[in-house]
Amino acid sequence: MKKSRKILIISVILLIFASGPVFSDTLEDLQSSVNSFSENMAKALPFHSTLGLNWSDAYIGKFTELPPHFGIGFSTGTTFMNIGSINQLTDMFDFDLPINDLPVGFPLSAWALEARIGGFFLPFDIGLKFGYMDVGTDNVLFLDKLKMHLDYMLLGADIRYALITGKTLPLKLSVGLGFNYLKGGVSAPIPAGQSFDFNDGGTNYTLKIDDPRLGLLWETSCLEFKIHASFPLVVITPYAGVGVSYAWSKTGYKIDADVTAENGGTPVSLDSVLTALRSFGITNVNENGFSQMLEVEGLNVRAFGGFSVNMTVIKLDITGMYNFLDSSWGFSMGARLQI
């Protein structure tokens, strides 16, 4: 768990570095960059939320059988986001990321506790997963020096019905319906002295922020239908499946800062430019900060597969995943006790 926690923290730190210099000379550029980033995150998040519960067995058996069938375990994994929108932000300031040329994309990591119980009388099973992290700036690695804070929550459940139970053939086939919910965020101080020029009715204004802290926010709810096949052998269990999902996502940023507005160097009230700021998608504006969020929904298709190593009641899983929406991929590893 400590290793997966470090992977998640490092991934998020890279993300905040990538997005730290998000501010540009004009609000038009800011809006364009954030929209591009949010749209790519909205494609990546539903895929990312499907990490966990990708067990090798397409069906684990009934709880009412002897012995009763159930399992509990842990998994950790990473999906990769298209890095183009992040580069769009950094290129505006001639800033190169250490992973600027990483061919697989930008890593997003997760972990989850998992449990699955066999059905009663009918050939179905039910799975649950939960992952959570709330890391302050005073207790993990070097976050205290960066004054960073990050939080993360992953919830999920599915129900699978076995079309082929594997009792007569070395094959199990199930169809399932699952729901995943992912919410997270990361915040850190960014360089002071940022300002944005914008125009309202022919008049030029400047929005200025001081002592700023940037928070990146994301949230997605994903409903998925999946088909899963596995081939239970003695030592290993290969498996493969396809999932079709529909997701509702929100991504964006929040700025906590001292905010003022000027016209040619002369201070003006924020109230007088609220309408103009809203036209750029910027909301919740006051002297303490502002935010911008984008809501996106849509269809997604993924493929997944891998194998487990079977050691009596202990199983070790390795899973690969592919996202057809943006041609990204991911992987996960897990261990569980399964009867």
Structure description:
The two termini are 23 Å apart. Helix content is 17%, strand content 55%. It has helices spanning 2-19, 27-49, 84-91, 143-146, 274-279, and strands at residues 70-81, 106-118, 124-135, 149-164, 172-189, 194-200, 203-230, 236-263, 266-268, 283-286, 289-311, 314-323, 328-338. A ten-stranded antiparallel barrel has the order 1-2-3-4-5-7-8-11-12-13. It contains five helices and 13 strands. The protein is of the alpha+beta class and 339 residues long. The relative contact order is 0.20. A hairpin with a 2-residue loop joins strand 11 and strand 12.
Strand and helix map with partners:
Layout: H1 2-19, H2 27-49, E1 70-81, H3 84-91, E2 106-118, E3 124-135, H4 143-146, E4 149-164, E5 172-189, E6 194-200, E7 203-230, E8 236-263, E9 266-268, H5 274-279, E10 283-286, E11 289-311, E12 314-323, E13 328-338
Determine the fraction of residues in helical runs and give it as a percent range: 10-25%
Q: List SSEs in N-to-C order.
A: HHEHEEHEEEEEEHEEEE
First-residue to last-residue Cα separation = 23 Å
Structural class: alpha+beta
Rg over CA atoms:
23 Å
Spatial strand order of the main sheet: 1-2-3-4-5-7-8-11-12-13
Share in β-strands: over 45%
* Overall residue-averaged pLDDT value: 84
